[in-house]
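TOKENISED FOLD:
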Amino acid sequence: IKNENYLSPRITGKVMQDYGRRNRSAAPEVSGQFTRLTNREREILKLIAEGNSNDEIAKILWISPRTAKVHRANIMKKLDVHKVTDLVKYAIKAGLIET
């Protein structure tokens, strides 16, 4: 995938299972950071954590891939993360996805 960090759904599942086993309770900073996200950003974070690419998110939400990319960048900035795997970990801690 051109210029995008991407985890296959298979790998995402394994990361989520492993991380979920180790981190059952949300850290205090998760709830504070979570309130900074808009509802749309939370929705997109969930889709990212489920392994969707910007193009897939765009199709699901009826937005342009560029808009999905901008949302992803905004989410990463607000949460101070730099990798998609960190977004997945955050989504697990925040309870957005099941492990």
Observations:
- The domain at 9-93 is CATH 3.40.50.2300 (Rossmann fold).
